[in-house]
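Hi, here's the filled form for the chain we discussed.

Project: internal
Contact: R.S.
Residues: 172
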Amino acid sequence: MRKSITSIASIAALAALAAFTWPRATTVAQEISTEPRAADQPPQPFNPQMGALMSMLIQPRHLKLWFAGKADNWPLASFTFKDLTAGFGVIGRAVPRYKGLPVPDLIDAAMKQNFALMDFAIKAGDQRQFRETFDKITTSCNNCHASTDNGFIVIKTPESNPFPNQEFEVKR
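And the returned structure, exactly as it came back:
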C-alpha cells in the first residue's frame, strides 16, 4: 500500500510540475520567436502621399480661411492664412517631386502672387480684396490640379461650415 501511495504521490507531483511549467514553456517559445511584434517595433516615419497631405493640411485651412475672412475675423484669418502657407511648405518638403514635377516650384508658381495679395487683404481688412483673392487662390489650386492630370479634383468656395465646433464670428 505504501508503494501505491508513493506512486500516486509521484504521479501527482509530476502532473503538478507539468501543469506549472506548460504555460511557461509556451511563453518562452513566444519570446524566442524570430518574428518581431509590430507593437514592439520603433515608430516608423510618417510618410503620407500627396493626396493625404492635401486633405490634412490644405483643404481644412482653405475652408477655415474662407469662413474667417467672410466673418471679418481678421486675426483668425491671419492665423489660418499662416497655417495654410506653412502647410504648402510642408508639402513641398515632404513631396519634393510629384509625377516628375518639382512640387515647390509648382506651389510657388501657383500661389506666390496670390499669397502676397491675400496677406495684403487680411492686413487691410478689405472684404472685397479678400474675396477676390480667395477666388484666385481657389482657381490656382484647380489649375495646379489640372497641370498634374488631377483636373477631376475641383476645389470651390465653401457653401456651408463643416466646422460646427469652431466660432468664426468676431466676439466683441
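Let me know if anything looks off before we file it.
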